[in-house]
# Entry
Amino acid sequence: MKKYFEILQKCPLFEGIEEKDLLALLHCLGAKTEKFDKKYTILTEGKPSKYIGIVLNGSAQIVQVDYYGNRSILSVVEPSQLFAEAFACAEVQSLPVSVIANEPCEIMLIDSRRILYSCANNCAFHQQMIFNLMKDLAQKTLLFHQKIEITSKRSTREKLLAYLGFQAKKEGANSFTVSFDRQELADYLEVDRSGLSAEISKLRKEGILDCRKNYFELL
Amino acid sequence: MKKYFEILQKCPLFEGIEEKDLLALLHCLGAKTEKFDKKYTILTEGKPSKYIGIVLNGSAQIVQVDYYGNRSILSVVEPSQLFAEAFACAEVQSLPVSVIANEPCEIMLIDSRRILYSCANNCAFHQQMIFNLMKDLAQKTLLFHQKIEITSKRSTREKLLAYLGFQAKKEGANSFTVSFDRQELADYLEVDRSGLSAEISKLRKEGILDCRKNYFELL
DNA sequence: TTCCTTTTGTTGAAAATTCAACATATATTC
DNA sequence: GAATATATGTTGAATTTTCAACAAAAGGAA
# Structure
């Protein structure tokens, strides 16, 4: 477990908890780690939402697939980040999303009841973790607002430019790589892939952006 | 303040707090109430996010207006419900949304710092409120998932039917009224109003639903 | 390298959305 | 009740998206 300390210390759930306490806390929480290959399902839509996940390395996508098989990508989670915490905290019966490994990754899973309710040892960190979860959920809400702001645009072009604008702001630079391939980007923006490719070509011809695979540059 | 006790007791923020303690707590929090006429702005996009709001009566809309003036409605908040709590908890610099009175309403506003951080009296309810906020934010996240599930559909028809399906589930009945007029429903579904009206007509002719103003019935 | 798979780009036709303009219906005000 | 304002429904044209099919490029495996 120790090799993940650096990642775990940056995890919002453990903010304000000192390294010396972390190992005991993880034990108390019954934390376990699992490895997943690319494209493997970490948590399955429709199943009970028992676990809060933490990405230790690699990355994962939060996806929703509708009745007709259309995939919608809600977000990407990267090392140190939590996922499925909202469903665990809201104690929903069944997960409304699946979590899929975006690349080979290691994941820590914690039974959410061990976080939300005091353990037998009544360890002192529950209050801190509740506060941390509250902060994290508030942050996640902002990301949803952002996604809605992007996808509420009516055209592929506007959606793409809004998305790239947010990425540029986040990276603090006009050039960056995105963690989506074309199909995934389309599924995040909720548009057609071929239409997205065509729009990228058009924007390139107009000198508005440059793009090579998942590298983008706003001009 | 006493006349709002019934509403406040149902407010997620005060769950688990007894009526006898509520008045003192509200005083401790420096809660104030304000009245707003229909269409008045309760909180303004771009301004600091100092306050958590509670709807006492009436209702309000959470809206976002983009560069071109296109309105997007994120959600509607009704009596007992919180709003702007995510921005307060995440301590963002400026609000990414406006909150608009949907009808004449009374609103309680609480400086979020009084909730998040212990007061001079160190009253015992902060922990409970933090827990309550965590639960509330988790619930709100589910609503965002729902909105994204609805608006990620590619056609006006599918968006409308997905929305009505969720409403029917929520109401536990196939007939219900929605708290949107046509333009607002269009702005929630992220579609064109006239196209929405046309789609409703079509669905009516096909015998799939009945609709009179904001009353809908799924057949 | 070569073969094979996957990803990305391109195109045209079909379908759907948006937009503008107007008709009709419903509320509101005096 | 009449007049006015607001909301909703209808239509056709322009634009855009989606869909399907294929071409081209990139990546991986042998």
Q: What stands out?
A: The radius of gyration of chain B is 19 Å.
